[in-house]
Amino acid sequence: MEIERKFLVKKLPEKLGDAHEISQGYISLDPEVRIRHKDNKFFLTAKSDDFLSRDEQELEISRVFYEILSSLIQNYLIEKTRYEIPLSDGNLAELDIYHGNLSGLITVEVEFPSEFLAENFEVPEWFGEDVTFDKKYKNKNLSKLENLSTLINNSNKKKLKK
Length: 162
Known about the structure:
By secondary structure, the protein is of the alpha+beta class. 19% of the residues lie in helices and 44% in strands.
């Protein structure tokens, strides 16, 4: 079970922590099945389609299997640098700076051992808008975007309708 909240980033923190290069693509969007290359490791992951709490199964796979599966990727490959930032409350923030077609997008996620802790999380001041329940910020949906302006334009259109 994965319990996490996701936020946009208002400003970068002073210390970024350990960095990991990640590329991931989606073999299936429904059900959600992705492959990921993180540093020198490769993973196959399946997730349920909930928001705060989701079932997640992850399996480390070989480079060869990853390369075979990569031919099945739908939409665009997501590329990002992930920084692991320890928070003062003992939680770990995973700050993602996206590259390529999503360049300019920065998000941060925090995983929790329970929904109670997730719901009562004291948000650091450098975090921005909470997008945990906004489906357009799910990585599987970000993989559909040709560029970041599509996400921004769709957000602005919704604001204008209100």
